[in-house]
Design brief:
The chain is an alpha/beta fold. Helix content is 53%, strand content 14%. Helix 2 runs parallel beside helix 12, helix 3 (51-57) crosses helix 4 and helix 11 (233-249) packs antiparallel against helix 12. Bound molecules: 1,3-dihydroxyacetonephosphate (13P). Residues 24, 82-83, 180-181, 208-211, 230-234 line the site of 1,3-dihydroxyacetonephosphate (13P).
Length: 284
């Protein structure tokens, strides 16, 4: 299959009460791990590339790896830009074949974020590409910041409604206490805020910083409208832990395949667990 626009699979998940996993990719083994997991679980899946991935592998390699995987796959696969920083980069990704893009204008004033996101939506939608926008900054509630600062960082539900309405985005990343990377303790999530956003906004919600969020919290977030969940750190951890084990057990090993292969296998199993948790197994 060629790439599907992410909104097709995310919208369906939103309607039917599950979430699609959006997993970060950086190299061939990671793409393979995710696709093998999606195939094994018969799940729709989103491969996403961050700034770091594009810098590391190059946009052409990312697209070629993901396309090769998607064309051989029998499950729907979308290729998504994670945290696009500027108009030019988002356009480049559309041109190279991404089927979904995120424009993250969350650090700009609201008016600017709305205007730039709406401009991107108009162009992306004209060529069938999905768009994710972000409002609110991703800070953890347990992070060392003042309450007033936290209030200002987490997504304001009324602003979220306006942002969705005026931009025409397909799905929206909001801040309700998740953050990127591992948490210091158990993350505390502001579910009341998420509930209020759900009441005012009728498009799927995206949860960034999915690594380390307890399963019960993930299920609750899905009940409250989260239909795309981003996971990166936990997958890297699984990959590198397995690769490190090989290197420690066999310090003389010089065949990269014997180090990266077990990393790929470990990552595949972690992705399968996430897919089952998100409820997207069997939905392809
Ligand atoms: P984690 O690295 O915390 O899983 O977050 C991934 C993410 O949100 C990518 O946008």
């Amino acid at each position: 299959m060629s790439f599907v626009p992410a909104h097709e699979i995310v919208q369906r998940a939103y309607r039917d009460g599950y979430a699609v996993g959006a997993f970060n990719v950086n190299n061939m083994e990671i793409v393979q791990a995710i696709i093998e997991a999606a195939e094994a679980e018969r799940a729709p899946v989103i491969l996403q590339a961050s700034q770091g991935a594009i810098k590391y592998a190059g946009i052409r390699y990312i697209v070629a790896l993901a396309r090769t995987a998607a064309e051989a796959a029998s499950v729907p696969v979308a290729l998504h830009l994670d945290h696009g920083t500027d108009f030019e980069q988002v356009m480049a990704c559309i041109r190279y074949g991404f089927s979904s893009v995120m424009y993250d204008g969350s650090h700009h004033p609201l008016e600017e974020n709305i205007a730039e996101t709406a401009r991107i939506v108009e162009i992306a939608h004209a060529v069938g590409v999905s768009v994710e926008g972000e409002i609110g900054r991703l800070v953890g509630i347990e992070d060392d910041i003042a309450v007033s600062e936290l209030e200002a960082a987490l997504t304001d539900p009324e602003q979220a409604a306006r942002f969705a309405r005026e931009t025409g985005i397909d799905f929206m990343a909001v801040a309700f206490g998740t953050r990127h990377g591992f948490y210091k303790g158990e993350p505390r999530l502001d579910f009341d805020r998420l509930r209020r956003i759900r009441e005012l906004v009728s498009i799927p919600i995206v949860m960034h910083g999915g690594s380390g969020v307890p399963d019960s919290h993930v299920r609750k977030a899905i009940e409250l409208g989260v239909a795309k969940i981003n996971i990166d750190t936990e997958l890297r951890h699984a990959f590198v832990t397995a690769a490190r084990q090989v290197m420690e057990a066999r310090p003389d090993e010089i065949d990269p395949r014997k180090i990266l292969g077990p990393g790929r296998d470990a990552m595949r199993e972690r992705v399968r667990e996430k897919i089952r948790l998100f409820g997207s197994a069997g939905k392809a």
